[in-house]
Amino acid sequence: MIFRAILGPVVVALSIFSPQLGMFGICLVLAFLSDVFDGVLARKLDVATPGLRRLDSAADTVFYLSALFAAWHLHPDFILGHIDSLAFLAFLEVFRYGYDVIKFGREASYHMWTSKLWGILLFAGFFEMLVFDSSGFAVDLAIYSGILADFEGLAISFLLKYWKNDVPTLFHAIRLRAEQFKGGYD
Predict the structure, then answer these.
(1) What 8-state DSSP symbol labels residue 83?
(2) For residue 18, what is the DSSP state?
(3) Of 47, 131, 145, 155, which residue is least crowded by CB atoms under 10 Å?
(4) Rounded-to-integer distance, Cα 153 and Cα 147, Å
C-alpha cells in the first residue's frame, strides 16, 4: 500500500522530467500488482482491519490522481475529450465522500465488486493513455465503471443506517439494512 502511494509521485516525476512509455507501464503494473497482493496478504495474515482498508483506498487515490496528472500533463487532449464524463465522475466522488462523512463521520470503505472492476479498468485506461498514447475504449470503460461504482456506493450509503465496511454489493446492503432496522446489527 505504501509502495503504491510512493509510485504516484514517481509517475508525476516521470511525466514532467522523463516521459518514457515503458517506465509508465512498469509503474502501472507494479501499482496494480501491489493493490492485488496487498489485499491477499492482509487477509492471509488476518490484518485486514477497517482502518487498513481505508488506507488502501487512500493509496489508490494518491496513485490514480498522480496518473491523472501525468495523463493531463502529457495528453491534455485526451482529458479534454472526456471532460464532461470526468467532471461528472469527479462530482460524484466528492459528493459521495461528503455524504459519507456527514452521515457516518468518516468515508465509506465498502470495497464493492464494482469498485474492484473500476480498479481493473482504471489500470487498463491509464495503460492505454500512458503506454499506448491513445484514448479510446479502455478510457471510456474506466470512466463509466467509476460512475457506476459511485452510484452503487451512494445507494449503499443511503440505505445503511450505520457505517459498515466491506459491503460488496447493493444487494448485501439491502440485507444489512433489514438487519440494522431489526436491531440485530450495531
Answers:
(1) H
(2) -
(3) 47
(4) 10
Q: How far apart are CA 39 and CA 104, in angstroms?
A: 24
What's the total number of domains in the chain? 1
Q: Do residues 53 and 47 touch, judged by C-beta distance below 8 A? A: no
What are the cell numbers at 118?
A: 473500476
| Per-residue pLDDT tens digits for 52-68 | 877 888 899 999 999 99
Q: Smallest Cα–Cα separation from 7: which of 115, 101, 123, 155?
A: 123
pLDDT in tens, 161-182: 999 988 999 999 999 999 877 7
Domain that holds residue 87: 2-182
Which cell is 142 given? 474506466
* Residues sharing a CB contact under 8 Å with residue 72, sequence separation 6 or more, in sequence order: 79
8 A C-beta contact, residue 14 and residue 126: no
Residue type, 40: V
Quote the longest CA-to-CA distance of the chain: 58
Q: What is the DSSP letter of 133?
A: -
Q: Which residue has the cell 482498508?
A: 53
Alpha carbon distances (Å) from 144 to 74, 96, 180? 22, 16, 31
